[in-house]
Specification:
With 431 residues, the protein is α+β, with helices and mostly antiparallel strands. The chain contains 14 helices and 18 strands. It is elongated, with a radius of gyration of 26 Å.
Length: 431
């Protein structure tokens, strides 16, 4: 007897197989028992016929409940009417555990109930699909970077200093060393890595003690930071664009079923695999004010601005060359206008907001130092970072992708909380 996964079932037509999984659904009618089995790789309709199974086994099988664990043996057959659909003609059923009455049913549950039952909710079909798309987005990103000679360089989570300003730091006591912080982004460490390895990336959890209660914010999320030596602003955006387009194609070819389950408009996704738009922050503000926004030239885009900016666009939009006063200390000054920095934000279409934050980095010691002093940063904590500008400084750039934001857009899941196994938000830490 061959143990197989449901995703491979078409390779075993008319052969005896054994499947191990859980009951997604069960119903019986007369001498027939229909169990929809799921095994993590997919779902399959199984059909047991009382005379084939024997009365005793048939009665035992009828006692299976939703989400009971079970091993089912049988012979895969093509569905009589539907193409590329298969059924299992059951020869044996072995219950492993009869599940208690399952709390999640077909009826509508509120988000709070579902989040409190996240440990069970992840079994639902849509959650299964979203988590599988997350997996593919993750591998798409890694594959692209690997092909482009980026070396994985893991940055620490416990850090002595801030990367993205001090207002969103999670703080903790670190033995006798004083305060430590949970990393907001590995970027500063990646900048050290390029001086050894040329092109590097990290991928891991980062933390923001952000009081934002929106569908786009988590307090713990996964970030991929990439950094490359001798890459300047233009090329930095090119890499970001190629990467996102690669991931779109990767998910479209690997997650057809998942996108269908989530009712994602795949035409919109295909349309996004085309040259991205570029607009300066200045032009964006002018455009938004015409559309009725009250944004000004020294302001970041609000959520509504991001929607207005992209509502007529089928592709993501780069907003570049930002006022330095509203961007992080490490961004390089625009040689054409010292009030601006060579930063870019990539805004998703369809209202999914900012996917990427990136920039060319300030590589001049004196300019960086004076900016840090102006921002009253504790220079002694960042001496290692300043050192990079003393020992073989090079023009360099990088960017960070919020994995959950990208998964939300690609899968069309409107709330970021469904794109990570256990979302952490200001009002939720259980389970
Ligand atoms: O724009 P951010 O803050 O950029 C950085 O942290 C840079 N140091 C990255 C780099 O250059 N290596 O964050 C990058 C991305 C955002 O564009 C967004 O997609 C995501 O991280 N992000 C969040 N995702 C979920 N919840 C939050 N609270 C997020 N804050 C940022
Ligand atoms: Mg940002």
């Amino acid at each position: 007897m061959q143990d197989v996964f449901i995703k491979d079932i078409d390779k075993y037509i008319d052969k005896q197989v054994r499947l191990k999984g859980w009951v997604r659904n069960i119903r019986h009618s007369g001498k027939l028992l229909f169990i929809i089995l799921r095994d993590g790789t997919g779902e399959l309709q199984t059909v047991a016929f009382q005379p084939d199974l024997g009365d005793e086994k048939f009665e035992l099988a009828k006692r299976l409940t939703l989400e009971s664990s079970v091993i089912i043996c049988g012979i895969p057959k093509p569905h009589p009417k539907k193409e590329n659909v298969y059924e299992l003609a059951v020869s044996d059923v072995m219950p492993i555990q009869i599940a208690d009455e399952y709390p999640i049913s077909k009826k509508e549950h509120g988000p709070d109930f579902l989040l409190s039952n996240r440990h069970l909710w992840i079994r639902s079909q849509k959650q299964w699909a979203a988590l599988r798309i997350r997996h593919s987005v993750y591998y798409g990103i890694c594959n692209y970077l690997n092909e482009q000679n980026f070396i994985r360089f893991d940055s620490p989570i416990l850090t002595p200093n801030a990367c993205e300003g001090t207002t969103t730091l999670f703080e903790l006591e670190y033995f006798d060393e004083g305060k430590a912080y949970l990393s907001q982004s590995g970027q500063l460490y990646l900048e050290t890595g390029i001086m050894s390895l040329g092109r590097v990336y990290d991928f891991g959890p980062v933390f923001r003690a952000e009081r934002s209660k929106t569908r786009k914010h988590l307090t713990e999320f996964w970030m991929m930071d990439a950094e490359a030596a001798y890459v300047e602003h233009e090329e930095n955006m090119q890499i970001q664009e190629e990467l996102i387009r690669y991931v779109i194609r990767y998910v479209l070819s690997n997650c057809k079923l998942e996108l269908e389950i989530l009712e994602r408009n795949v035409e919109a996704l295909k349309a996004a695999d085309a040259p991205f738009k570029r607009i300066t922050h200045y032009e964006a503000v002018e455009f938004l004010r015409q559309k009725g926004s009250d944004i000004t030239h020294n302001k970041d885009l609000g959520a509504q601005d991001e929607v207005l900016l992209t509502e007529d666009s089928t592709v993501p939009v780069f907003v570049e060359r930002w006022p330095q006063e509203i961007k992080a200390f490490y961004m390089k000054r625009d040689p054409e206008n010292p009030n601006l920095v060579l930063g870019d934000d990539l805004i998703a279409p369809e209202g999914f907001g900012e996917l990427i934050g990136g920039s060319q980095r300030e590589d001049d010691y004196d300019l960086l130092y004076s900016r840090m002093v102006a921002e009253k940063m504790p220079i002694e904590d960042y001496q290692w970072y300043l050192d990079l500008r003393k020992y073989g400084s090079v023009p360099h750039s990088g960017f960070g992708i919020g994995l959950e934001r990208l998964v939300a857009w690609i899968s069309g899941v409107p709330h970021i909380r469904e794109t990570i196994p256990f979302p952490r938000m200001i009002y939720r830490i259980y389970p």
